[in-house]
Amino acid sequence: MRRLTEVIRSIGTLDTDAMREAERHSDRLTKPPGSLGKLEKLAVQLAGIEGGYPLQVQKKAIVVMAGDHGVCEEGVSAFPQEVTPQMVLNFLSGGAAVNVLARHVGADVVCVDMGMKGELQHERLWVRKVRGGTYNIALGPAMSREEAVQALEAGIAVADELAAKGYKLLATGEMGIGNTTPSAAMLAVFGGLSAEAVVGRGTGVNDAGLLRKRAVVERAIQLNEPDPVDPLDVLGKLGGFEIAGLAGLVLGSAANRLPIVIDGFIASVAALTALRLAPGVGAYMIPSHLSDEAGHRAVLEQLGIEPILHMDMRLGEGTGAALAMTMIDAAIKLMNEMATFDSAGVSRE
Q: For the chain, what percentages of helix, strand and coil (3-state, to nearest 5) are there?
């Protein structure tokens, strides 16, 4: 708990001088002021995070955290739980969608076992396992408060290690069969929303499966009685180890003054958990896309961020975050390479 408290207290504000300098430079470029929209806002945010200008081309990592969920016992997923480690092996061998998109944007994929069932061995797997899967939230708490803190601090440590390795831009990704159910339950509590508003089809459950998921979320909330103003209570009673790890990654990124790209629904709920623990992390978040998963728009509203892309995606893994990295690269290159009115001899009037 000490490390978590230290990190929350250490998160600083953005460098307003660097942001003003970036804004002034943007206004001198050969374009009408503000005409590049979100790309200009991105560049200014990056300057505030980096604390300087011009912007640096960034070494990138997409962190895919994996965990299993006891709530799968309730039949909330269209896929069996064995798919979690199978997909992690796919990530590690470079064959998943996130690997393809990561190669496209020049990012590394870092895969972390936060709480999968069984013991998966691989030289490139980062093992930070808290326990082999959460308990069934329809029957009781997912984890203890102490385990929630342990998972958060493990995520912080991953951010620290990546920062030490020279990474300057991180992104959130996840893998865990059944994890839309605990994510929806957490969002319902944080946002005071109904199960109907936040529960989606996840991996593609049919109409009966959707009704079953909603009932499980309602039962889990009623049984566990999470306190909406206590993020650790919500996380411990309803969450997942990969969700907690990603929340820690967001906190650790902000503490290391690194921008963090937020992926889809599950990753956004993790980011919301981090925001409720430390409101200052919001300044370090870069949204990626609006997922097609029910509830994602609601969690983005809770985060106070607008998606960059609308691609009707709902895969997770960090795929939306990878695509958003192309926009971040574009924002940096425009600011660094575009001519000014003076250098190009273009009249402003």
A: 55, 10, 35
Handedness of CA 223, 188, 233, 169 (dihedral sign): positive
Choose the catalytic residue: 225, 317, 337, 349: 317
- Write down the pTM of the prediction: 0.97
102 and 143 assigned to the same domain: yes
- Domain of 283: which CATH number? 3.40.50.10210
Residue with structure tokens 């030490």? 164
Annotated catalytic, 317?
yes
> Is there a single domain that holds both residue 10 and residue 68?
no
Domain coverage including residue 64: 60-326
Domain count, the chain: 2
Using alpha carbons, select from 259, 263, 335, 242 the residue that is nearest to residue 59. Answer: 259
The answer to whether 84 touches 175, Cβ cutoff 8 Å, is: yes
Query: Are the beta carbons of 293 and 324 closer than 8 angstroms?
Result: no
Whether 123 and 246 share a structural domain: yes
Q: Which CATH number characterizes residue 44's domain?
A: 1.10.1610.10
Crossing angle of helices 38-50 and 16-28, rounded to 10°? 140
Express each pLDDT in 236-290 by its tens digit: 999 999 999 999 999 999 999 999 999 999 999 999 999 999 999 999 999 999 9
Residue 161 lies in a domain: yes
What pLDDT, on a 0 to 100 scale, did the predictor assign at position 27?
94
The kind and range of the H/E element at 61 are strand 60-67
Tokens of 322: 């990878």
Residue 24 domain flag:
yes
Quote the radius of gyration of the chain (alpha carbons, Å): 20
Do the Cβ atoms of 115 and 242 come closer than 8 Å? yes
Q: Within a domain: residue 349?
A: no
At 187, which helix (H) or strand (E)? helix 180-191
Indicate the SS3 state at residue 91. helix
The more confidently predicted of residues 348 and 333 is: 333
- Per residue in 128-151, pLDDT (tens digit) is 999 999 999 999 999 999 999 999
